[in-house]
TrEMBL record:
Keyword Lyase: no
PROSITE patterns in the cross-refs: WD_REPEATS_2 (PS50082)
Name the record gives this protein: Poly rna export protein
Keywords, sorted A to Z: Repeat, WD repeat
WD repeats: 53-94, 126-148, 247-281
Organism of derivation: Lichtheimia corymbifera JMRC:FSU:9682
Keyword rRNA-binding among record annotations: no
Similarity-based family: Belongs to the WD repeat rae1 family.
Record-annotated Anaphase-promoting complex subunit 4-like WD40 domain positions: 20-96
InterPro entries xrefs: Apc4-like_WD40_dom (IPR024977), WD40/YVTN_repeat-like_dom_sf (IPR015943), WD40_PAC1 (IPR020472), WD40_repeat_dom_sf (IPR036322), WD40_rpt (IPR001680)
Length: 342
């Protein structure tokens, strides 16, 4: 850990599940296993002020800002997506997922997890993905979904940039969407990695995505057939004893298109996919890192130190650390390397 990193004041009291910065100002939204979503204002000097919070009826597992910075959506183990209006300070439920087995019995574990993302559309449209094997689209003015897509498997992770949305599902299935036609899967793929998908993250230029798995590998995947020769995978988050750790988070720098990876080994590294180089390893913490995010101009990198469930429920202890740090990003650490031609 960089000793100059700023610690966020009044962090969550339980595991931290997701971080997201507003695209309009330095406001950080945080979801956590204590059922809360918290919003912090980051001051120019790096200090933080808790500004607001709201509750789910179960663990809050993901969070997403609207493009105008006026709304925050979050998904939780209560099978609901909730929206917080920053201007009014009021939270409302905006989406619901349920799952019924063929035998008719409701199974909590099949429907608990919801992923949420605001789409890059003129009107505020929310996409929610669930373990009930669906993607649903919601116009926030209506209580019913405006579209539903059947997925091949449970949704574990999703990301969207512009008109590209990528959904990482169970059994290594990946669904790619062109949001010009959101209710049809544009392309279905299989993860290039051997083990379970943990995270997907779209390139800022919408040409592809990075995918991370539980076995300490990242795959760089392009969407168009003509770019498939650029696909590659690499090992990361492994130690000298050949122990392998989960890749929990991949965050792209909004300006340079380089990216970070963070894992169960408590390390963060910045990478350049085009030159296939690691730019900088910068964090080595006593704990696991479940989530990360850059602010809107890439000058702040936020990361959480919190239990990531990689060792199961037995290691979810009340004594576990729950902290968030802000790292001041230096240009030299994230700028792409210029490869010199001989």
């Amino acid at each position: 850990m960089d000793p100059k990193d700023f610690e966020v004041a009044s962090p969550p009291s339980d595991g931290i599940s997701a971080l997201d910065f507003s695209s309009q100002a330095d406001y950080l939204a945080v979801s956590s296993w204590d059922n809360q979503v918290r919003i912090y204002e980051v001051q120019p000097n790096g200090s933080t002020i808790p500004k607001a919070s709201y509750s789910h009826e179960g663990p809050a597992l993901c969070v997403s800002w609207s493009k105008d910075g006026n709304k925050i959506a979050s998904g939780g183990a209560d099978k609901a997506a909730r929206m917080f209006d920053v201007t009014t300070g009021q939270p409302v439920q905006v989406a619901q997922h349920n799952h019924l087995h063929e035998c008719g019995q409701r199974d909590l574990h099949e429907s608990v997890h919801i992923s949420v993302k605001f789409l890059d559309q003129p009107q505020p449209i929310l996409a929610t993905g669930s373990w009930d094997k669906t993607i649903k689209y919601w116009d926030l003015r209506s209580p019913q979904p405006i579209g539903t897509v059947q997925l091949p498997e449970r949704c574990y992770t999703m990301d969207t940039v512009g008109q590209l949305m990528v959904v990482g599902c169970a059994e290594k299935s990946v669904c790619i969407f062109d949001l010009n036609n959101p209710t049809t899967i544009f392309k279905q793929a299989t993860s290039p990695l051997k083990w379970q998908t943990r995270v997907v993250s779209c390139f800022p230029d919408q040409k592809g995505y990075a995918i991370g798995s539980i076995e300490g590998r990242v795959g760089i995947q392009y969407v168009e057939d003509k770019d498939q020769s650029k696909n590659f995978s690499f090992k990361c988050h492994r130690d000298e004893s050949k122990n392998v750790f989960s890749v929990n988070a991949i965050s792209f720098h909004p300006m340079y298109g380089t990216f970070s990876t963070a894992g169960s080994d408590g390390t963060v590294s910045f990478w350049d996919k085009d030159s296939k180089q690691r730019l900088k390893p910068f964090s080595n913490v006593n704990g696991t890192i479940p989530c990360t995010t850059f602010n809107r101009n890439g000058t702040i990198f936020a990361y959480a130190i919190s239990y990531d469930w990689s060792k199961g429920y037995k290691f979810s202890l009340p004594t576990n650390t729950n902290k968030i740090f802000l790292h001041a990003v230096r240009d030299d650490d994230v700028k792409p390397r210029v490869t010199r031609k001989r």
